[in-house]
Amino acid sequence: MSNFKFLDFVTEGKMIRTSDGVNRMSFTDACDLTLLYFLVLSVMRHYPISKRYVKTYATEVLKWGNWEYFRSSGNDLYGLLNIVDGDIKIVSKLKDPKNALLSRTRSSLPRMAVKRLLRNMANGQAPTMEDSNVLYKIDLGLRNSSYSTLRRKVASYTNLNTKEKKEVVTQLEFALKARGRNADLIDYFILFVSDYDLESKTAKDTEPTVSVPDPIPANTKDIQMLRMLGVPNKDLPFAYKVLSITSRGLPIPSRFAQAYQPIMQIVDDIVKAGPGYVNLLKQVHNRAKRAKN
Predict the structure, then answer these.
(1) Do 181 and 223 fall into the same domain?
(2) 47 closest CA partner among 199, 197, 200
(3) What is the model's pTM?
(4) Residue pLDDT, tens place only, 34-48
């Protein structure tokens, strides 16, 4: 247990934590998410800062040379590849084992081509036409149709205009929020969309699961107020975005939780001081809400 009660419930985002934790996922889910992850990583390769993240992420997938066995320390894409192309025993732990096994036997991930694509990502190479062909092979091999249209757009990303790029990226964000709510790369991708101003106001969310709308954008004055609560300057942007992350039902990444620690300490001290201090905090909160309105 940590020194702060609230930090004990803060975990870094990860969709696949244990082999038993895949029982809420169908084989179709795993196939869709595998392609979706590759599409998200492919788009981020086009931008210098996020390209470094892709390089690190791909390197982690390739760390063991293959994805034959489930590894709790592996990232989400490693776990997905293990489901669709690794030890077939893990299929028995999916939501519908019988149909999952049938689907698995009918699918075929182009393993060597996927490894080649991951190596290109890990080496920091720019996307090529051959990489686009690998995305097509993944789509075809996994018999995936949910994101085929997005895959074609990602393959020709450099030829899209600004409006079209924003629509593609926003549709990927919708898909990732709906299908990979606890995905280990979702927080970074959301920040990537924001930092590069790639959010489309006209793109429609057609995902089967309705995603929660993002809260109001950050206000510079509000961010500076956090400094008065003990948040260091370098942590201000991260601390402010904690509410944005939790309002979407997402786990808080460790870097954001660390930035928010001074505020957690204040609340923790008040809770430990007893009901009188808690009631005072509630009174101040009510006054603040009225002042804000």
Answers:
(1) no
(2) 197
(3) 0.67
(4) 999 999 999 999 999
